Amino acid sequence: MTALQGSLLDLADDVVVGRLDGTSRRHLSHGAWVDTLTGWVGGAHGLYAALRRDVPWHAERRQMYDAVVDVPRLLCFYGEGQPLPHPALDECRVALSRHYARELGEPFVTAGLCLYRDGRDSVAWHGDRIGRSREQDTMVAILSVGAPRDLVLRPRGGGSSVRVPAGHGDLVVMGGSCQRTWDHCVPKTARPVGPRISVQFRVAGVR
Ligand SMILES: O=C(O)CCC(=O)C(=O)O
Ligand SMILES: [Fe+2]
């Protein structure tokens, strides 16, 4: 009985990367779009726990005008060819590369991980415009595990914002001109929220 319970628990811990054919696309202005798929990764608890435990999370400090401030989240970046911290993330990367191959024309090769410890952690308005994404269309695919937070997008030229919920096991892909013509952020929240881990898959030479 104990052995059976043990194996059932193991089973419940298994991380399952689902199919991508259920993604739904929302077209934004200026050729930007977002694809979403809720519950892409099943057993996401196991993935969250393993990443929380195994990733060498570190804090960063950044120059902000004339002060040096803490970046309000923990980070870890995996460059091209670097082993990812969980086999499910390799599976995600390969599945995304295959699914978007025709449209993107190149594979996802890097993974940026962020840990938002609570509602005070956030990422300010920005576009991922370091590298080719400043001039060219690209995609940034984000897997979220842990507490749900919102990814909010707004057109750079002004206009109303779009709120995209990023829940446990969900996928959000920003594509087209999204990094150039729109900004995105994960706002702070006063709601009592638990920790969230975000995994951003990008192509070579884009941050
Ligand atoms: O946490 C997220 O899902 C977004 C993170 C992000 O925009 C970034 O690291 O560039
Ligand atoms: Fe970003």
From TrEMBL:
GO terms for molecular function: dioxygenase activity. The keyword Oxidoreductase applies. Pfam families: 2OG-FeII_Oxy_2. The keyword Nucleus does not apply. Residues 107-205 form the Fe2OG dioxygenase domain. SUPFAM superfamilies: Clavaminate synthase-like. Keywords: Dioxygenase, Oxidoreductase. PANTHER family: ALPHA-KETOGLUTARATE-DEPENDENT DIOXYGENASE ALKB HOMOLOG 3 (PTHR31212:SF4). This is Alpha-ketoglutarate-dependent dioxygenase AlkB. It comes from Fodinibacter luteus. The lineage of its organism: Bacteria, Bacillati, Actinomycetota, Actinomycetes, Micrococcales.
